[in-house]
Amino acid sequence: MGKPKKRTSSRKTGTRRSHLVLDLARRVNAKSPIKIRTTVRESGKKVIKKTK
């Protein structure tokens, strides 16, 4: 059986689509009044602490 071709260059971290989209979203969030969801930690819902 044939073997699968190897990747000639390893995938760089910054070139993944998700990273590019994140970068664009952060740029938009900096300027626009309408905010775009980036990551759970960055744009998660604010949790109100319950006190007794």
Characteristics of this structure?
52 residues; mainly alpha
Q: How do the helices and strands follow one another from N- to C-terminus?
A: H
* Quaternary structure of the protein: single chain
Q: Report the count of strand segments.
A: 0
Major beta sheet summary? none
Approximate helicity band: 25-40%
Q: Give the CA-CA distance, first to last residue.
A: 68 Å
Helix-strand category: mainly alpha
Overall 3D shape? elongated
Strand portion: under 5%
Q: What is the alpha-carbon Rg in Å?
A: 19 Å
Instruction: Give start-end ranges of low-pLDDT stretches.
Output: none
The tally of helices reads 1
Question: Average pLDDT, to the nearest integer?
Answer: 81
